[in-house]
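Progress note, sequence design subtask.
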C-alpha cells in the first residue's frame, strides 16, 4: 500500500477533521483489511458517529453529496484528483425482508456497526491518527490465519443477505483464504437461495473470481459449496466418469490460463459445458457487455482454428490473428493445449510466429477500398464485400503487389462473377 495514495490522504484528512470536531471516526471495512494485508485498497471508507447532516455541515454542502440516503452515507470530496471518500454513520441494520437489503437502519455505535458487517476480516476499524486497529469481531486473528468467517451465526447472516454466500467464495478466491467450517457448511445448505440475488450482482462477483489468477480454486469452491449449479446451471454435474474427466480438465485449463480478460476466462470455463451460442447468452444473462459476450463467442468459435493454425491457408490465419481478440485467443489455446504442450504444439507455434511478425507483414495496408472501386467506375453493391475479400486474399498470397493490379483484378472479377 502506498502511503501517499491520493484517496488515502483524502480519507486521512476526513478522519482528522471529524476527530478535531469531537466525533469518533475510523477507516472501516475492506480498506482496513487490505491495508493490514499490505495491499492497496480500491477505496477508503470512513465510519463515524457523526450523523449524515453533521457530516454535510462540517464539510460543506458544495463538497458533499448524499450517496446512500437510506443508509446515511455521504460522499465527501476531500481532495482533487480522487473520487469522494464515503463517510457512513455507525449503524445497525433493521429487518431484512427480501434476502438482500435491510428495510430500515438505525444509527448506533462502532461495536454494532462492526457486527452488521459480513465477515470478520471485513469488520475491522482502523484509527489512522493513533495507528491502531479496533477489532470487535476477531478479524485480526482471521486475517493472520487466512480465514473467511461470518460475523455471528452464519445461517442468520446468510438469511439476511444472500449475496454474502457468493461474497464469501469471492473473498476466499481473491485473498487465497479458506472458508471457516461452519460458514462453509451454511453456504452449502443455503446455496440454492442465491437465486434471489440479481443476475447483475452475481455477474459482478463471478467477474472478480474468474479474472483472478486463482480462478480455478474459486470455481472448485463454487462447485463444492453447490453455488455453481445455481449461478451456472449449465454445469448441472452429471455423476459419471466422462463428466468428471471434463470437470478436472476445466479446472486445469482455468489454472493454466494466463489472461485477465473476462471473455477468455468465461470461454475457458464453459468450453466443454456449453456451445458458442450458449456462452454468449450466459454472458448476456450475467449482464456483461455486448462486446464481452461477442468476444467470448468468437473465442469459442475460433479456438479449433487456432489449434490447427499450421494447417490453415495464410489468408484465413491472417484474418484470425489480426482480430482484436487474437492475443486472448492464443492465451486460451495455450491453456487448452496443456502444460508442457504449449511450447511444442504446432498450431500454437504458428500463431506465436504470426503474432511476432512486424505489423506491416502481418497486416499489410489494403491495396484498394470500396471508395477506390467506385472511383474506378464499378457500380457499388452488396457484392463489394466478396470482391474486396477476394482482392485481400490475393494480396495476402502475394498475387497482387500494387493498387493497379488490384483494380485490374476487380474488373476481371466483375466480368467473371457479375455483380
Ligand atoms: P472490495 O471493495 O475489494 O470488493 P470490500 O470489502 O471493500 O471489498 P465493499 O462492497 O466495498 O467490499 O464493502 C465495504 C464494506 O462494507 C465491507 O468490507 C463490509 O464491511 C461491508 N459490506 C459490504 N457488503 C456487505 C454485505 N452484503 N453484507 C454485510 N456487510 C457488507
Ligand atoms: Mg470496497
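Output:
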Amino acid at each position: 500500500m502506498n502511503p501517499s495514495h491520493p484517496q488515502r490522504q483524502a480519507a486521512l484528512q476526513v478522519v482528522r477533521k471529524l476527530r478535531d470536531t469531537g466525533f469518533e471516526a475510523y477507516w472501516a471495512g475492506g480498506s482496513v483489511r487490505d491495508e493490514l494485508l499490505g495491499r492497496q485498497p480500491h477505496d477508503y471508507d470512513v465510519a463515524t458517529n457523526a450523523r449524515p447532516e453533521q457530516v454535510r455541515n462540517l464539510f460543506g454542502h458544495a463538497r458533499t453529496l448524499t450517496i446512500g440516503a437510506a443508509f446515511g452515507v455521504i460522499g465527501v470530496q476531500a481532495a482533487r484528483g480522487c473520487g469522494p471518500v464515503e463517510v457512513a454513520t455507525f449503524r445497525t441494520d433493521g429487518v431484512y425482508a427480501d434476502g438482500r437489503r435491510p428495510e430500515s437502519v438505525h444509527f448506533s455505535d462502532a461495536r454494532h456497526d462492526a457486527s452488521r458487517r459480513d465477515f470478520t476480516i471485513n469488520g475491522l476499524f482502523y484509527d489512522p491518527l493513533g495507528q491502531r486497529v479496533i477489532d470487535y469481531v476477531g478479524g485480526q486473528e482471521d486475517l493472520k490465519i487466512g480465514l473467511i468467517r461470518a460475523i455471528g451465526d452464519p445461517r442468520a447472516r446468510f438469511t439476511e443477505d444472500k449475496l454474502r454466500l457468493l461474497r464469501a467464495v469471492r473473498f476466499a478466491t481473491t485473498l487465497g483464504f479458506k472458508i471457516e467450517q461452519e460458514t462453509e457448511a451454511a453456504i452449502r445448505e443455503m446455496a440454492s437461495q442465491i437465486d434471489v440475488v440479481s443476475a447483475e450482482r452475481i455477474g459482478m462477483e463471478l467477474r472478480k473470481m474468474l479474472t483472478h489468477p486463482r480462478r480455478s480454486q474459486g470455481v472448485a469452491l463454487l462447485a463444492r459449496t453447490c453455488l455453481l449449479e445455481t449461478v451456472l446451471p449449465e454445469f448441472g454435474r452429471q455423476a459419471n466418469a466422462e463428466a468428471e474427466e471434463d470437470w478436472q480438465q476445466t479446472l486445469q485449463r482455468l489454472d493454466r490460463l494466463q489472461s485477465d480478460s473476462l471473455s477468455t476466462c468465461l470461454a475457458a470455463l464453459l468450453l466443454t459445458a456449453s456451445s458458442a451460442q450458449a456462452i454468449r447468452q450466459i454472458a448476456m444473462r450475467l449482464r456483461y457487455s455486448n462486446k464481452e459476450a461477442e468476444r467470448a463467442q468468437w473465442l469459442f468459435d475460433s479456438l479449433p482454428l487456432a489449434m490447427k493454425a499450421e494447417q490453415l491457408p495464410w489468408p484465413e490465419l491472417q484474418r484470425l490473428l489480426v482480430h482484436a481478440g487474437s492475443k486472448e485467443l492464443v492465451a486460451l489455446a495455450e491453456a487448452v493445449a496443456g502444460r508442457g504442450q504449449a511450447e511444442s504444439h504446432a498450431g500454437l507455434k504458428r500463431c506465436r510466429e504470426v503474432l511476432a511478425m512486424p505489423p506491416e507483414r502481418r497486416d499489410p495496408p489494403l491495396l484498394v477500398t470500396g471508395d477506390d472501386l467506385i472511383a474506378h467506375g464499378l457500380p457499388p453493391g452488396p457484392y463489394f464485400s466478396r470482391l474486396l475479400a477476394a482482392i485481400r486474399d490475393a494480396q495476402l498470397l502475394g498475387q497482387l503487389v500494387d493498387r493497379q493490379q488490384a483494380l485490374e483484378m476487380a474488373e476481371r472479377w466483375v466480368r467473371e462473377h457479375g455483380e
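Residues 19 and 137 are 24 Å apart (CA to CA). Work on this subtask will continue into the next period as scheduled.
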